[in-house]
Design brief:
Keywords: Glycosyltransferase, Transferase. This is Dolichyl-phosphate beta-D-mannosyltransferase. InterPro entries: DPM1-like, Glyco_trans_2-like, Nucleotide-diphossugar_trans. With 243 residues, the chain is of the alpha/beta class. The chain contains 8 helices and 9 strands. It has one domain: Spore Coat Polysaccharide Biosynthesis Protein SpsA, Chain A. Strand 1, helix 1 and strand 2 form a beta-alpha-beta unit. Helix 5 packs parallel to helix 8 and helix 7 packs parallel to helix 8. The protein starts with a strand and ends in a 6-residue tail after the last helix. The mean pLDDT is 90.
């Protein structure tokens, strides 16, 4: 068993999941993978369970009924990891927008350099996004700028979903008190880590938009992020925000 677990939420990722897993398991450093599948009707879970025979001690699946949201998928994965001996727990998308090779860089930023949270950052050194329309790049960049301004976090990519947590961070944060289930979940987790004064570092990565399958982005997700940030900040000022 590895000391590092990659949590990969899936919903209809049959076109990507096998290729992603083979990429991760071919890396020089060993990572275990937990796929959290929300009842994908396209057979994603079936593919994963078939591959578990090839990697019986490294590949695991957590099946849930229905689409319950990105945040709850990660929290389920975090709790699964904390019941075991993993020291480093990762978030990663299934669609190859995150390069599997960068897992090693995020791992080293925590394991070797002593940080508690490493973030695969699209905006640390400019705008490193491939295949997004300019409107979406601008929206994402402005959202991170807005979050940084409101919260005071010195993080350029506040909405990043490619991260590595040391175990102690997830043990300290009250996971059952996380409020948001969409992309605001990413902001809230970073904000709670920041309020707890853990060491946070951004590792520049290149984000490449999916070429297979469909994006899960929606207007509701964006709205949750915008208004949720204000709520989090106000509660933290008045000491009513549970971290």
């Amino acid at each position: 068993m590895s000391n590092a677990l990659v949590v990969v939420p899936t919903f209809n990722e049959v076109e990507n999941i096998e290729r992603l897993l083979r990429n991760i398991f071919s890396l020089q450093r060993q990572f275990d993978v937990l796929v959290v599948d929300d009842g994908s009707p396209d057979g994603t879970a079936t593919v994963v369970k078939g591959l578990m025979e090839k990697w019986p001690d490294r590949l695991f699946i957590l099946e849930r009924e229905g689409k319950q949201g990105l945040g709850t998928a990660y929290i389920s994965g975090f709790k699964w990891a904390l019941k075991r001996d993993y020291e480093y727990i990762f978030e990663m998308d299934a669609d190859f927008s995150h390069n599997p090779n960068d897992l090693i860089r995020l791992y080293n930023a925590c394991h070797r350099d002593g940080n508690d949270l490493s973030i695969g950052s699209r905006y640390k050194t400019g705008v490193n996004v491939v295949n997004w329309p300019m409107s979406r790049v601008l929206l994402s960049w402005l959202a991170s700028k807005y979050v940084r301004l409101v919260t005071g976090m010195n993080i350029y990519d506040t909405t990043a979903g490619f991260v590595c947590y040391r175990r102690v961070v997830l043990e300290t944060i009250q996971l059952d008190k996380i409020q948001f289930v969409g992309y605001a979940f990413q902001i809230e987790m970073k904000f709670k880590t920041y309020l707890r004064k853990f060491r946070i570092v951004e590792v520049p990565v290149i984000f490449t938009d999916r070429t297979r399958g469909e994006s899960k982005m929606s207007k509701g997700i964006i709205s949750e992020a915008i208004f949720g940030v204000i709520s989090m900040k106000i509660k933290s000022v008045f000491k009513r925000y549970e971290i």
